[in-house]
Amino acid sequence: MPLYDCMLLLKPTVERVALMDLVAQVGRHVYHKNGVITDIKSFGRTFLGYAIKKRDGRFYKGQLMQMTMMVPPSFNKELHYLNKEDRLLRWLLVKHKNTVYGLDFMNDDDGKHNLLNYPKSGLYNMKDRDEDDEDDDEDEEEYVEVTEETK
């Protein structure tokens, strides 16, 4: 199943209880489609770049929520009930590209992620590290000489 981000922009007057009710409603739809919600973020109240006109006025602020979920590709058609939702200003469903998850990720393993392919000596070679430390000592001596000359 691909990974999607569902962005929900709600009216600034919506209370937190109603906001959580809407998020739970979307979560139930995800669950009924055998999907998984991986992350929920709230960005709080944000100023909009332009006013959004609705039946009950113009809105210059909104409450922004992001839900990350793994659902089947047909899920986009399931969310069109959000168009009639009075609490929402806008909603958007964005698909993550070029990401592989689940069994597809496990089957594509061609050994490139195997830790045994890397050298056992580690990331740092102690011999190289000692040489770098000597260079640092020389830099410090030069600094001391320069500061004494300036006094």
What's the gist of this structure?
With 151 residues, the chain is α+β, with helices and mostly antiparallel strands.
What do these coordinates show?
The protein has a four-stranded antiparallel sheet. It starts with a strand and ends with a helix. The mean pLDDT is 79. The chain is built from four helices and four strands; from the N terminus they run E-H-E-E-H-E-H-H. A hairpin with a 2-residue loop joins strand 2 (36-54) and strand 3 (57-70). It is 34% helix and 32% strand. It has 151 residues and is an alpha+beta fold.
Beta strand %: 25-35%
The best one-word shape is extended
- Overall radius of gyration: 27 Å
Total strands: 4
Mean pLDDT: 79
Unreliably modeled segments: none
Computed structural class: alpha+beta
Distance between the termini: 69 Å
Order of helices and strands: EHEEHEHH
Question: How is the biggest beta sheet arranged?
Answer: 4 strands, antiparallel
Which key features would you list for this structure?
alpha+beta, 4 strands, 4-stranded antiparallel β-sheet, 4 helices, 32% strand, 151 residues, single chain
